Batch of 3 targets.
Target 1
Amino acid sequence: MAVDPTLPYDDTNIFARILRGEIPAKRVYEDDFALAFHDIAPRAPVHILVLPKGSYVSWDDFAARGSEAEIAGFVRAVGHVAREQGLVTPGYRLLANIGSDGGQEVAHLHVHLFGGRPLGPMLAG
Ligand code: 5GP
C-alpha cells in the first residue's frame, strides 16, 4: 500500500526494523548518519537503498526536520556508496519515491541507487 507522507513516522516499518538489526539485509555501508543495503528485489544489476538513520518519512520531512549534520552525512553517504560501488564513471541513477503518486511503499525515507547497465528513459510511460 502506498505511503501517506502526512502521517507521523511509524517505527514498525520494515526499514526501521532493518536499522535496528531485527531483520537481516545485505549491508554495503554504514556510518553515523546512513545505512546502505541491497534491495531485496533488484531492478538493475546494482540496486542499493541508502537510508538516513533518523526517523524521517519523506524527503520534505527530512529537509524540514533533519539537522545540518544528518543531511550532510546522508548526502555524503550516497556519494560514498556510488564511488565504492564503481558507478561514477559508467554513471548511475538516484531515485526517491515519495507518497502515493511517487509510489513509495516503505515509510522511511530512502534513495534508490541503480547502476550496472544503461538505465533507459527517466520515466516509464
Ligand atoms: P519504495 O517504493 O518505497 O521506494 O521502494 C521500497 C523498496 O524496498 C522496493 O524496491 C523493495 O523491493 C524494497 N524492499 C521492501 N522490503 C524489503 C526488505 O525487507 N529488504 C530489502 N533489502 N529491501 C526491501
Target 2
Amino acid sequence: MATPSLIQLVDIPQRGDARGGLSVAEIGGALPFPVRRVYWIHGTAPSVSRGFHAHKKLHQLCVCVAGSVRLSLFDGRREESVVLDSSAKGLLVGPGLWREMHDFSPDCVLVVFADAEYDEADYIRDRDQFISHVHSS
Ligand code: T46
C-alpha cells in the first residue's frame, strides 16, 4: 500500500467575480475543524526561516493569501515540502509533524486557522526531543 503523503492540500472555494477575488474557509467546506484562533505571518524576509517545531495536539490549516512560502514537514522518518502560493489551496498540518517555513517572498501573508488557543506547552521546539516523541508514541 502506498505511504500517504505528509502534504495534505485542501481546495478553498473561490467565489470571486469581476470585482475581485473572494475565498471561503468554512466548516463543512475547507475547514475540517472548528476554529478557535487565527493568526497571520507577514513581513518575513526571504533570508529568514521560521517554525522549527512540532505540536502535540494542534490542528491547523495554512493558507498563503499573498506571495509564496515553502513549508516542509517531517514526521520523524520522511520529509516533504510544498510551495504555497495561492489562496485557493490550504495545507492541513496536524500534530506530530515538525514544520519549517522557508523562502518567504517579501509580500507573503500566511494565514493560519487553528483548532485551539495558543499554548506554549503544546510545542516541541527541540528536534531531538521531537524524534524521541514520535518514536515512543
Ligand atoms: C506554527 C507555524 C506555522 C503567540 O503569542 N500567539 C500565537 O498564537 C502564536 C502563533 C505565537 N505567539 C507568540 C509565540 C512567540 O513568542 O509569537 C511568537 C512567535 O511565535 P513562533 O516563533 O512560534 O512563530 P513561528 O512562525 O515559528 O510558528 C508559527 C506558530 O507558532 C506555529 O504554531 O505551526 O507558525
Target 3
Amino acid sequence: MKITATPFELELRYPFTISKFSRTSTPVMLVRIEHEGFTGYGEASMVPYMGESMETALAFLEKTDLSWVKFPFAFQEITDYLDSLAPGNPNIKAAIDIALHDLRGKIEGKPCYRYFGSDPALMPVTTITIGIDTPEVVIRKVKEAHMARVLKVKIGRDNDRELITTIRSVSDQPIYVDANQGWTDREAALDLIHWLHEQNVVLIEQPMARDDRDSNAWITERSPIAIVGDEAVQRLADVDLAAGVYHGINMKLMKSAGMSEGYQMILRAKELGLKVLIGCMSETSCATLAGAALAPLCDWADLDGPFLTRNNPFEDPEFRDGKWILSEQPGLGLKFRD
Ligand code: MG
C-alpha cells in the first residue's frame, strides 16, 4: 500500500478573520493511497491554530508504514496504530483515514455514506460562513451566499451586535454564531445571547474559554439557544466531558483524526443526549464530501469549505436547497477539475 502526499495552498475567497487572527490561505496536504489498482484520496487541512503544518504532516507520514494493512481495512486497528506513532497530528491522521474510506468504497463499489448508515434524505442544510468585515463587505458576502438556507457568523469582538444587525438588514435566514472562546464575562455573554435569540440566532459555538467548564455550563443552563462545544471537544474522549457543559458538540474530521472516530463521536454524543454539529476547516471537496457522508447522522452541518475557497482542485459537490447532495459514485465521489 503506497501513500503519496502533495502539499497544496488553498486560497480563501476573502481573508478569514475570527476573534483572534486573520489569514488569506490555508495549507492542505492531499494524500493518495494506492492499493491493487485503486486510488483513495484524503485531505489534511492544516489551519495554523491546530499546530499541524506541512513539516509536521510530512514528518508524520515519514514514520507511517501501512505495509501491514490488508483489505478489508480494520479501521480501529489503523487508528490505534496511527495514535501509537504520535498522540497529536489529528489532521494528517484524518487525511489517511479519509483516503482509506474512499479506497474502501472504490474497491467495493459503494458510496462511503452507506458504511455509516447515513440516510441522504436526512441531510441537514449547511451553513455558509460570513466572515467579519466592514459592513459593505458583509452585505456583499451575504448576497453572494444567497444559496444558503442558514448563515454562520464568527463573533466575539466588541461590534457583535453591529455585525448581526448588518446581516439582518439584507437577510432573514437563521444564523449560527461562533464565539470561538471570545467572550470573557458570562453575565454579559448571556445578555448578548438573549439579544441574539431575538435575531433568530439558533446555535452558538464555544462562548467562553474551553477550559472554563463552569462558565460554559452556567451559560448552557440559562441559554434559550443551543450552546455547542467546539474547541473543548477534540476527540472521542472529550465527548463525555461535554455532557452537562454544552447542549451539543462540534465534530470536525480534522479534530477527530478522521471518519472512523468522527462516527464514534457522533454515536457517543447521541447516547449522552448531546446534539451534533458537523463542522469543517478551510477544506477542498475531499474533506467536505467525507464530512457530508456523516452529516445525515448530525443535527446541524457547517460544511462550507468549497464556498469559501477559490482554487479547489476538485469539482464542487452538488448543492441543492441549501444541502450537499451525496454522490452515488463509489467512495467519496470526488472528481478532479479538468
Ligand atoms: Mg467553531
